[in-house]
């Protein structure tokens, strides 16, 4: 029973520490709980070296996942950490139940922190792009030509219905509103949709 309590404390304090940018009380509790878990399982002879190796390697992989594209390392690391708990002692089914209870409580804590308290993980702010690539933020996937609407341009080639017009010395691909427009004719730019410029003969 004490092992279950320690496992719950380890998982809950680990989740709480994730929402802090520096070592908090949750982090200190996590360290103490891990130490107590290791001491207790070591004294009873249930802790094996394979469990320690899996736990350490799993934590390292999950940390590396924060700086590597993809979720493979994180998934493998999490599986290794979970396996390290399952391999403690000889009763795997009992440890599986302990692990399931701890994970369920940790997930509930995560949901409460995010949904009800609006918390976010500070570390993710440094490795995840949060800038908006909207037009309002100054980003555009093409040259914005919306300012050309209503301007007068000159056809450089015949428009059948597509061709080239010039405006202030710049060549612009354009299409006519429907009718054929000959070369060297003045046209009015009536619509701009992305890179599509529609003109009408004057």
UniProtKB/TrEMBL annotation:
<dbReference type="GO" id="GO:0006508">
    <property type="term" value="P:proteolysis"/>
</dbReference>
<dbReference type="GO" id="GO:0005886">
    <property type="term" value="C:plasma membrane"/>
</dbReference>
<keyword id="KW-0812">Transmembrane</keyword>
<feature type="domain" description="NfeD-like C-terminal">
    <location>
        <begin position="147"/>
        <end position="200"/>
    </location>
</feature>
<dbReference type="Pfam" id="PF24961">
    <property type="entry name" value="NfeD_membrane"/>
</dbReference>
<keyword id="KW-0645">Protease</keyword>
<feature type="transmembrane region" description="Helical">
    <location>
        <begin position="95"/>
        <end position="117"/>
    </location>
</feature>
<keyword id="KW-1133">Transmembrane helix</keyword>
<dbReference type="GO" id="GO:0008233">
    <property type="term" value="F:peptidase activity"/>
</dbReference>
<dbReference type="InterPro" id="IPR012340">
    <property type="entry name" value="NA-bd_OB-fold"/>
</dbReference>
<feature type="transmembrane region" description="Helical">
    <location>
        <begin position="52"/>
        <end position="83"/>
    </location>
</feature>
<dbReference type="InterPro" id="IPR056739">
    <property type="entry name" value="NfeD_membrane"/>
</dbReference>
<keyword id="KW-0472">Membrane</keyword>
<dbReference type="Pfam" id="PF01957">
    <property type="entry name" value="NfeD"/>
</dbReference>
<keyword id="KW-0378">Hydrolase</keyword>
<protein>
    <submittedName>
        <fullName>Serine protease</fullName>
    </submittedName>
</protein>
<feature type="transmembrane region" description="Helical">
    <location>
        <begin position="26"/>
        <end position="45"/>
    </location>
</feature>
<dbReference type="InterPro" id="IPR052165">
    <property type="entry name" value="Membrane_assoc_protease"/>
</dbReference>
<feature type="domain" description="NfeD integral membrane">
    <location>
        <begin position="2"/>
        <end position="114"/>
    </location>
</feature>
<dbReference type="InterPro" id="IPR002810">
    <property type="entry name" value="NfeD-like_C"/>
</dbReference>
């Amino acid at each position: 029973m004490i092992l279950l309590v320690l496992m719950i404390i380890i998982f809950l304090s680990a989740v709480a520490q994730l929402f802090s940018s520096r070592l908090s009380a949750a982090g200190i509790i996590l360290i103490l709980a891990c130490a107590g878990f290791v001491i207790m399982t070591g004294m009873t002879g249930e802790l094996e070296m394979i469990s320690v190796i899996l736990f350490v390697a799993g934590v390292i992989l999950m940390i590396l996942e924060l700086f590597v594209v993809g979720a493979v390392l994180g998934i493998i690391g999490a599986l290794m950490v979970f396996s390290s708990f399952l391999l403690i002692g000889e009763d795997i089914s009992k440890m599986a139940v302990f692990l399931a209870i701890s994970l369920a409580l940790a997930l509930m804590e995560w949901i409460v922190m995010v949904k009800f308290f609006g918390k976010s993980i500070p570390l993710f702010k440094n490795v995840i792009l949060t800038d908006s690539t909207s037009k309002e933020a100054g980003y555009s996937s093409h040259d914005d030509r919306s300012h050309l609407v209503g301007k007068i341009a000159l056809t450089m080639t015949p428009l059948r219905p597509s061709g080239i017009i010039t405006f202030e010395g710049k060549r612009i691909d354009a299409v006519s509103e429907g009718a054929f427009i000959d070369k060297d004719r003045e046209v009015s730019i009536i619509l701009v949709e992305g890179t599509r410029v529609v003109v009408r003969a004057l």
